[in-house]
UniProtKB/TrEMBL annotation:
Domain of life: Eukaryota
Biased composition, class Polar residues, residue ranges: 1-13
RCC repeats mapped onto the chain: 103-154, 155-207, 208-259
InterPro entries: RCC1/BLIP-II (IPR009091), Reg_chr_condens (IPR000408), Ub_ligase/GEF_domain (IPR051210)
Transmembrane feature ranges: 38-59
Protein name: Uncharacterized protein
Amino acid sequence: MTLRTIPTPSSAHAIQPAVGETRPAPPKRYRPRLRFRGVGMAAVGAGLALFLGLSSTAATAAPTPNSGPTAGGTGITLEAPGGITFTRASAGAWYSLAVASNGDTYAWGANTYGQLGTGNNDASVTPTRVQAPEGVTFTQVSGGEYHSLALGSDGNAYAWGANWNGELGINSANGGSNVPQRVHAPSGVTFTQVEAGSANSLALGSDGNIYMWGNGTNGILGNGTEEGSTVPVRVHAPEGVSFTRASLSSFRALAMGSDGNTYAWGYGVDGLMSSFLFLVVSLLESDQFSPILF
């Protein structure tokens, strides 16, 4: 499998515009209107229309300033239900998910397609318990555009919400579900991480492979085609490489390899064209990445 190296930040900065060509201005940096100064954050997340900050006792949502139905709005703080604390969280497109210290998972926000997993399609302005299968607790959650994923204490992945493209991984693309459904994992494989995208899903397997399902446009499923799948399919990793962490956005995926490299696939990782091949992202020790304090 052919590998290419994406220019590092330092080398990219050295590229000069052609004669008569104007270098485009850097994109604006947006910050949420609500600032979290003075509050210790246990976790943070960003969705299509909001930023989510999680303290030990509350979830604070700050709307994105430039897009979506929450643009220009003010932030809100939602207290956790009495007697519990939130430990992990994820921001979906217009909704949020949080794992609580009592083993329950809570959701709030938009719910048109059942993405809250509460057994109905009613929106909620307060944290409402997700209806997990009996005997199963969720240890990690991920909110997508209109569907959600969770990692179960039994090693299975669970999905709920919209399912137009098979993004729930239940061997069907008909309708959706407003309660969690078990993803059809490959035989002998348990999952250690889940990520929900726009119309597809990703899970890291106990075997070091990444599995994806849902819409396959632009090769985002990483299996060498643009065919979609209603059940998990293995991403074609370079020979000898297993994966330790992964991240999924609307049009591309990233993963940390056992060889120390970062791999990317999907739309936009090969110039402006789609790519079914892995690309190696090279990072130098001198590269600096500074977080912004909100």
